[in-house]
Amino acid sequence: MSVTWSQPKLRELCKKHGIYITAWGPLGTYGEIWGSNLIMENPTLEYIASIRGKTVAQVALRWLYEQKVTMIAKSFNKERMKENLQIFDWKLTKEEAKLIAKIPQQRRYQGNEFVSPSGPYKTVDELWDGEI
């Protein structure tokens, strides 16, 4: 889960059943071969970060925190680790939350290796119940 894959239906189902969500790679594992720049180079997040004097990562992590999602943000950089912890003494405004809600959604991991003409899932749409 991230700002670019917010999964509102899943969040509602989990809330209904008392299940807590954990976001693995909530910043898109930026810079890794399997990662994505969809979050760290997102114009909406960059805009909010610039007017707030925050980093894009802080805005993305704060949004997850406000969604009551736990997160695992990996970094070996001490300064980034410190920055990532600086999300608890401020809140996103309603206007900022509305801007984030308009960010186009995109699944980073499609699951193509689980699709096969002879398997239980013939298409990626079938695998994800059409929610791509």
Automatic annotation (TrEMBL):
Name one molecular function that GO assigns to this entry. oxidoreductase activity
Gene3D superfamilies according to UniProt:
NADP-dependent oxidoreductase domain
> Which positions fall inside the NADP-dependent oxidoreductase domain?
7-103
Q: Which Pfam family, just one, is annotated for this protein?
A: Aldo_ket_red
Sorted alphabetically, which InterPro entries does this protein's record hold?
AKR, Aldo/ket_reductase_CS, NAD(P)_OxRdtase_dom_sf, NADP_OxRdtase_dom
Q: What is this protein called?
A: NAD(P)-linked oxidoreductase superfamily protein
Q: Which organism is it from?
A: Rhynchospora pubera
